[in-house]
Amino acid sequence: MKALAIEDNVMLAQSIKDYLKPSWLVDTTESGEEGIELAKSHEYDAIILDLGLPGMDGQDVCTTLRKADITTPIIVLSGMSETDTKVLLLNKGADDYLTKPFKSNELQARLNALVRRGPQKGKSPVILKIDNLTLDPQKREVRRASKKIDLRRKEFDILEYLMRNQGKVVSRPMIISQVWDAYTETWNSTVDVHIKYLRDKIDKPFKRKLIKTAHGVGYTIHK
Ligand code: CA
Questions:
Q1: Is there a cis peptide before residue 101, judged by omega within 30 degrees of 0?
Q2: Exposed / middle / buried, residue 20 (Cβ in 10 Å: 0-12, 13-18, 19+)
Q3: One-character DSSP codes across 23-51
Q4: How many angstroms separate the alpha carbon of residue 31 from the centre of ligand 1?
Q5: Stretch 67-95: mean pLDDT, rounded?
Q6: Do 174 and 137 share a structural domain?
Q7: How far does the centroid of ligand 1 lie from the alpha carbon of residue 50, in Å?
Q8: How many angstroms does the Cα of residue 51 sit away from the middle of ligand 1?
């Protein structure tokens, strides 16, 4: 799963990124304006939004995102604990609220709850399934014909993205924007290499091949 953290405290942003690493890929930015651009151009499962930002503050970021029809769940981080602010933010479209300082496991639990509850746009996880292939985004577990398959991180993330968009063609740049962080330079050929590994594990041993190449465009997964 992929999150965006809009937080001007660089150390806090880094510690969030590190803590969530086993199950979340986190893009970070210190600026509300840049956060909005990232949220518009990438597909995130959740947004972690600091309230006190230099320039555009968290409340305005939240309002702007919702006005732009970005329905990704937002969890707001703030030093303020007043109920008024909390209510105000929830009215502005935030989904949850965490008062600083907070424990990392608290943030993770809240994020998981948000994703389980399902983002408003309906790309919620539960267990993704195509034919006899299943992927559990929470446990990060993949099975085909009930047999557990070990995937590397990027392989898993690519498969999850394909399965969330089953039947649709996803281009290599779309895969890159979803699976690699926004600041890593990644080539289309890198995607092809990961797809090859993925196919070796989930398709090669089975008769029915699920990952299909859309020539000149990208990939798709369907029965
Ligand atoms: Ca701040």
A1: yes
A2: buried
A3: T-EEEEES-HHHHHHHHHHS--SEEEEES
A4: 10
A5: 83
A6: yes
A7: 6
A8: 6
Q: Tell me which DSSP letter residue 112 carries.
A: H
Q: How far is the CA of 8 from the centre of ligand 1 (A)?
A: 5
H runs (alpha helix) in 128-211: 153-164, 172-179, 188-202
In a domain, residue 34? The reply is yes
pTM attached to this predicted model: 0.66
Least confident range from 5-14, 88-97, 137-146, 186-195: namely 88-97
- Any idea which residue has 């994703």 for tokens? 115
Q: Residue 174 Cα, ligand 1 centroid: separation in angstroms?
A: 31
Residue type for position 180: W
Q: Clarify whether residues 17 and 55 are in a common domain.
A: yes
Q: Could you tell me the distance, in angstroms and rounded to a whole number, from the CA of residue 144 to the centre of ligand 1?
A: 45
- Cα 32 to averaged position of ligand 1 atoms, centre (Å): 11
Same domain, 15 and 90: yes
